[in-house]
Structures are given as structure tokens and as C-alpha cells.
Amino acid sequence: MDQLLAMRAFTRVVEAGSFTRAADSLEMPNATMSKLVQELEAHLGVRLLQRTTRKVTVTPEGQDYYAKATRILNDLEDIDSSFNVARSRPRGNLRIDVGGLTARDVLIPLLPDFMARYPDIRIDLGVADRSVDLISDNVDCVIRGGALDNSSLIARHIGDAGMITCATPAYLKQYGVPAYPDELKNGHRLVSYLLSQSGRAMPFRFEQDGASIEIKVEHRIGVNESNGHFAAGMAGLGIVQTFMHTAGPALRDGALVEILAKWRPPAYPFHVVYPQNRYVTHRLRVFIDWLMECFPARVRGVDAGSAR
């Protein structure tokens, strides 16, 4: 039995919650994964996992072994990395998850620079406006905007995106230009962004002289994906609040017009988030450092006043 490989297989099953997902993440056959765990259990003389057709449950002995095995595996990676950092460039696979608009307008345009700096790092990019479980999905880090609600994760602030309220000229010609945020309640059609977890619409937010205003009205259309949300605004379906760096080109060519400029929405914070109990590899460290360097300027966006 390859005990080190068996330990890796077992810890991934615990983290993924299933043999199939664990096997996929380690790119090995499901039967091989199962055999490795069985051999490890036989070697230790204890049952580490309880298996049923529906789920895998970790036994008390399995929980104890998982905690100890994780420390050993992290120590081994630390030892390997201490030599690799001194002698070679960071290498290996990075799994990153990011929202749709952020991928399209910020991260992907920046990635050629990262790939040129670190040619031995391979990136698997998951693009979706949904929350992922970094442990069970075997994701190294996520780039997320807005409020963070999971204290078990480490989050580093990487920038603040300017926000803007806008609509198409055709929409404004038909429905008029609101002069105050409260006028959005008077017959205007709003394109709302729907939160993926709850399905609730994000309220329209405004700020002026330190005072905050939230407008909650029934939306004309709600979209739970950021690219589709912006496309709905571009199609003239209603008033939309979006990132300034996303709306910039449309503002410059007149496809969108900023409204309520005196009540700009508050800036939208972005963080890179990664698990607290997982070893931070050299390749993840350089990616986070690179984000801290490049991301803020990209999300700062164009000033709408200079876009017209």
C-alpha cells in the first residue's frame, strides 16, 4: 500500500463528502479511491468511514485520523515548498472561482500578465455567480464581492469597485429621467440582481454626504447572473445598478446614460477568500500577491463624468 497516497485519498473523501467527487478532484478512478481507503482501514485496523448508497459519514476514529493526517500532509507540502521556493518557479494547478462579470471584465483581461510571469502554473477557472464550498469542491480560492458571511475562511481585501446607476437612452425617453432616488417608486422599471443563495433581489442603494438610502420596490425583471443582469439593462428592460468598470464602454459610446449621479451607490468591496485550515501553497501565495498588485486599479473603473 502506498500509505501517503492512501492518506491523500482519505482526506479528500472527507473534504468532498463522497468518493466520486474525491476521485474526480484527484483525477483517479473511483474504484482506485475506494481501494486505497479500504487498504488504509485494513492497515490501521479501524473503520474510518461509514458508507451507504446515499452518503459517506466519518467515524470518530476517522475524524481523529483526518486531523492528524491533514497536519502531516501540510507539513510535507511545506517541506517541499521550502525547497521549491528557493530553487524553482511556482508550479502546479490552481483552482479559482469567480463571478461572471468579474471574470469577463477584470480577471481574464489581467490573466495574460500572470501567465507570463508564472508559466508553470496551470489555472482551472470556475465562473459562476454562486457560492462554492472551497473544501468539498477542492477550490484553492474564490474572488467574491460584497459582504462576507463565513468566518471560517480567510479573506483579503483586494479592491473596491465603483458603482453606477444607469439606463438606455430609449428607456429614459419613454419613462423619464428620475431626479431623486425616491422617484424610482413612481412607475419606473428596475432590473434587479437576484442573490443566488436566497433568490432575493438586492435593493438599489444610494449615498449622498454620508447618508445612505435603500430603495426596495418590486422589480420588472430579476436576474441571478451578473452578465445576464447587465445585458438586461443594455437591452432597455429597465434601470440597472452595475459596476462602473463594466458600464464604462457603454457610457462612452452613449448606449447607457448615468442617472442620479449625485447619489452614487457605495463602493463594492472585493476579497480573495481561501480556507483557514488548508496549507497555502507557493502558487497560491504568488497569485494572491499578484491580485493585490493588479486588481484594485482594474476595478476602480472609469469615472462616468469623463465617459460622456
The CATH H-level homologous superfamily of the largest domain: Periplasmic binding protein-like II
User: What percentage of amino acids are in beta strands?
Assistant: 15-25%
Please state the overall shape, judged from the principal axes of the Cα atoms. Answer: elongated
Instruction: State the CATH topology of the largest domain.
Output: D-Maltodextrin-Binding Protein, domain 2
Average pLDDT value? 86
CATH class of the largest domain equals Alpha Beta
What summary fits the major beta sheet? 5 strands, mixed
CATH architecture annotation of the largest domain: 3-Layer(aba) Sandwich
Structural class: alpha/beta
Which stretches are low in confidence, meaning pLDDT under 50 for 5 or more residues running?
304-308
Number of helices: 10
What is the H/E string? Answer: HHHEEHEHEEEEHEEEEHEHEEHH
Q: Summarize the amount of helix as a percent range.
A: 40-55%
Separation of the first and last Cα atoms: 68 Å
Radius of gyration (CA) equals 24 Å
Annotation, overall tally of beta strands: 14
